[in-house]
Design brief:
Layout: H1 8-25, E1 29-34, H2 37-40, H3 42-57, E2 61-66, H4 69-78, E3 85-86, E4 89-90, H5 94-118, E5 123-127, E6 134-141, E7 144-155, H6 158-165, E8 169-173, E9 175-178, E10 185-187, H7 190-200, E11 205-210, E12 228-229, H8 234-239, H9 247-259, E13 264-269, H10 275-281, E14 288-290
Parallel strand pairs: 1-2, 1-11, 2-8, 5-8, 6-9, 11-13, 12-14
Antiparallel strand pairs: 3-4, 6-7, 9-10, 13-14
Helix pairs in contact: 4-5, 7-9
């Protein structure tokens, strides 16, 4: 494969274009929801961690919130337990909750922290249980019992803010503690938890890394990307089917963040190496911005 030559002029133009963005984002809080293919592919995983360390190094306060559905499925398979989903949410009985907690707060969280440290970052792993970061109540969807699946009722971001003030990168797994008097742990959807954390921290940007380019006019055509969406247009886009199926809950998370005061929300392609840097430090951007 022939090496692509990049001229000094091109390099300088890229750096000059990035400078205003460096200045803008320094000192600002950015919440990144991390999951999907970017979490399974080792090269993409490393690229994401390099992006986050670079952001942290220049003074951007990054909070990384992660899921781990495929890894949970794999562990359940290993113990011979079938994964069961109801209306898109994982049915979580007591045994499954133990696996969820073990995989998310134990293995995955510490794996991510370890990679960030290897890339030269300062990272600390947390779960929603730590310091009462996330409180939740049991949910039932359409009258169906989902087991230990919860919805966030309160976010106390003080531990996260303390870490950010000391230039650490908080890495958060979305297992929550029950409300007062409820000592159960609850499995929380990582997208919705990340949106609520972004609101509580008064973040400047909320980014979801996904397995698609963003919102598409035609799902089968990746070139039909919609780069900007005014939130007022979303109801009609849902009714006409432009936004459908798995994209709806991601859009709803963006709306939750916008409603809570986060100025910019993005759905970007985690399969593109360094997509986070492209979004934050270039005029072209990447993915879909909902504003």
């Amino acid at each position: 494969m022939e090496e692509v030559k990049i001229t000094n002029e091109t390099w300088s133009n890229v750096l000059v274009e990035s400078l205003p963005y460096f200045k803008h984002w320094c000192g600002k809080i950015v919440v990144v929801k991390y999951g999907g293919n970017a979490m399974l592919n080792e090269e993409l995983k490393k690229a994401v961690m390099q992006d986050i360390v670079l952001l942290n190094t220049i003074g951007v306060k990054v909070v990384l919130v992660h899921g781990g559905g495929p890894e949970i499925n794999h562990m359940l398979e290993k113990i011979g337990k079938e994964s069961k989903f109801i209306n898109g949410l994982r049915y979580t009985d007591e045994e499954t909750m133990e696996i969820v907690q073990m995989v998310l707060t134990g293995k995955l969280n510490k794996d991510i922290v370890g990679i960030l440290l290897q890339e030269g970052g300062k990272a600390v792993g947390l779960s929603g249980v730590d310091s009462g970061l996330l409180r939740a109540k049991k949910i039932e969807k359409d009258g169906v019992d989902l087991g230990f699946v919860g919805e966030v009722t309160d976010v106390d971001p003080s531990i996260v803010q303390s870490l950010l003030d000391k230039d650490f990168i908080p890495v958060i797994s979305t297992v929550a503690l029950g409300e007062d008097g409820d000592m159960n742990r609850y499995n929380i959807n990582a997208d919705t938890a990340a949106a609520k954390i972004a609101v509580a921290l008064k973040a400047e940007k909320f980014v979801q890394l996904t397995n698609v380019p963003g919102v598409l006019h035609k799902v089968e055509d990746p070139t039909s990307l919609i780069k900007r969406i005014d939130r007022q247009a979303i109801p009609s886009m849902i009714s006409t089917g432009v936004i459908s199926s798995g994209m709806i809950p991601k859009i709803e998370c963006c709306l939750e963040a916008l409603k809570g005061g986060v100025p910019r929300t993005h759905i970007i392609d985690g399969r593109v190496p360094h997509s986070l840097l492209i979004e934050m430090f270039s005029d072209r951007g990447i993915g879909t911005m909902i504003y």
